[in-house]
Amino acid sequence: MKRRSHIPESPLPQVSGIDPVRMRLPPDPEGMWPDLGAYLTARYEGTRGSESMARLLAGGRVLGVGGRVLRPEDPYEPGAFLWFHRDMPPEPVVPFPIGVVHRDEHLLVIDKPHFLATTPRGSHVFQTALARLRVELGLPALSPAHRLDRMTAGLVLFSIRPEDRGAYQLLFQERRISKEYEALAPHDPAVQFPRVLRSHIEKVRGVMAAVEVEGAEPNAETLAELIETKGDLGRYRLTPHTGRTHQLRVHMNSLGLPILGDPVYPVVGDPAPDDYRRPLQLLARTLEFTDPVTGIAHRIESGLSLQAWEDRSGWEAGPASAATEPHSPR
Fold it and tell me: Which residue, of 56, 84, 112, is where some domain finishes?
């Protein structure tokens, strides 16, 4: 069995809840890179990171083992580790709090507000649930067991201790956890519920909308139930049996009942990144599982509600100020 190489301790601390980038220099059997600067220039050539990396090196902000400052002229050392923090542009502040629903020494479950990404990705780095919680709760080793997309509100589970991380992640990978969502969407008496929705969903990286591939083997399954109606609006319980990207949104849209506030389905829109007036009316309502570390059975419920059920003003005609608090507790 191949033994894992020892990874040295990072010489750089977290910054606002974000770990430094760790890089290990690859082999160079042909001697292509005479020094560190040559390798990093080649690695980032033609990317947005090219100028940034040059600034980091020139400013002494790239460190090696033990905190040694690395310079462009340093000899190239295959297998060596280096660390740095990327220069990140300012992010719009997501002005909604994160609610703690459950916490013990192993496990943290939070209510994530709409518009807040779970983990750093793309242009969302510091304004993410992971980064904010690490700082707000003083838990630098916090790690997510799964992800909830940025537009969806509700329950997200994190492991507090690094040694427990794998056990909680396996809960989701092996589908030993039951998840229920609540959604608001149009009500059509001609669409019968309950119903099981099965299809093959594909999501291409860099493309906003996922698509259903007709005739392909199903890889996504959702139980959809109508809970109650109010005029032409329905409140639905959605139970996913798989975890494809945008699965619930795609399946509701396939019925001709797109979830209220969805900026992607049925038509991809372009809302401003700091426009919080029409949150997606989708909520991760419950998580039910047996804790793999403590053996305790949990059924955890969100304390949030979908605002458009009580106040639909502006939802048919477009954005309205009445929808500015998507995370308001019940």
Answer: 84
